[in-house]
Amino acid sequence: MKKMLRMLTMSLLAAVLLIGVVACSDSSKSSGTGKSDGKKVTLDFLWFTDGVEGDVMRDIIKDYQAENKNVEVKLIEVAYQDYTTKLKTMIAGGKPPALARVTDTGIFAEQAMDLKPYVGGVDKFTSQFLPSIKPYYVKKDKIIATPMDVTANGIIYNKTLFKKAGVEVPQSPDDVWTWDEFENAIKQVKEKGGAKYGLLVDFTPHRYSTLVYEFGGSIFTKDGSAPAINNKNGVATLDYFKKLHKDGIIPESVWLGGENPNNLFRSGTAAAHLAGNWMLSNYKDINNFEWGVTYLPKGEIRSSVPGGKYIMGFQKTGVEKETAAFIKYLSSKEVNAKFNQNSLFLSARKDNNELDYAFGKDMFKVFSNELENTPEVAANDWGNQVVISKVTTDIRDAVVEVLSGGVSSKEAMDKVAEKLKEAIADSK
């Protein structure tokens, strides 16, 4: 009898211990210890906003959290002028956010998590996006970010002045003007349409470099190890840019006088503006004349300059798996379409190149086509942010010096090449 009682007691004790183990296991699922896929996690998402896209992203986050009850995405908004410093400080302090919106992917490439294991590999993932932007988010065979929106340079023109001059712009990519043909068109709009200014070009190397690529040039060699801006194509570009100023096609008042090209175009007195697609929403309220978008003229090749914003996840956060899942969700066709369509942005996805925008649908389509005809070399150059950010002012100043008649194009680009060599050496 005593033996049976002892056996019963031991059985009851084992049962109690088993219940305790199960209870502890259930407790760990709800406590966020990371020992279960059911854990509750918070993803800090560093963010800056240019327009309405912050509100659009909040709606997307709500949708994601409704489907993933264990995930809270915390959007942390920082002013753009403080953004890079804030992100660098968080990383240096050993407390990076789970993910962040970035423009300069190269600066944070070493701290970024590799998304490749989560998205099916490099080839499968990159095949969804415009090939010209690949160098921005693929580094050393690692996927360091996902593209969200993309920017392009293009031609915004004054329809009213062109109509008055009797000049029709190209209606399809098959009819793109050469630069000579474009020059003649601008001259007619000035002579017959009454335009005071011809082609406005923003006072930035980013816009100037559009011509560099169209003339078959580049800023760096393909592998980024040396400057290429002072080769014959780079020099020929600057010679031609000077000629456009000398002939009155491009007004000197922007690059040499500091006039704001946006204000000049808004005045209705300029024929065209070589600008980024973000100006579509900026010019949306113009009502004193008609305006539209046409294709960039071509040199040796067609080219724009791709830019944009990316979502990057970071290493050593403890929530890499959940971060990757959310980034994969953001990069999907449907979610990417919602973000760009409602924000009036241009999508980097090839299957979202004709979104149903509330404004400017046909104009966005032209900018998208510019990117489809842009070589990867443009993204190779501008994706090398660690180096190029150190010399953009030097490039701009060199162009100004040539336009002012101080030096030859060759001399100016040789000076820039020396600055590039120094920047490349400092980055190693």
Describe this structure in words.
This protein is α/β, with parallel strands linked by helices. 48% of the residues lie in helices and 14% in strands. The chain is globular, with a radius of gyration of 27 Å. It starts with a helix and ends with a helix. The model is unreliable at 1-36 (pLDDT under 50).
List the helices and strands and how they pair.
Blueprint: H1 2-31, E1 41-47, H2 53-67, E2 71-77, H3 80-92, E3 99-102, H4 116-119, H5 122-126, H6 134-137, E4 138-139, E5 142-143, E6 146-151, E7 153-158, H7 159-165, H8 179-191, E8 197-201, H9 205-214, H10 232-246, H11 252-255, H12 261-266, E9 270-276, H13 279-282, E10 291-294, E11 307-313, H14 320-330, H15 333-343, E12 346-347, H16 361-372, H17 376-382, H18 385-388, H19 392-403, H20 409-427
Parallel strand pairs: 1-2, 1-3, 8-9
Antiparallel strand pairs: 3-11, 4-5, 6-11, 6-12, 7-9, 7-10
Largest sheet: 6 strands, mixed
| Share in helix | 40-55%
The rounded Rg comes to: 27 Å
Number of helices: 20
* Mean of residue pLDDT values: 91
The first-to-last residue Cα distance is 82 Å
What's the total count of β strands? 12
> What is the overall shape?
globular
Class of secondary structure makeup: alpha/beta
Q: Stretches where pLDDT falls below 50 for ≥5 residues?
A: 1-36
Strand content: 5-15%
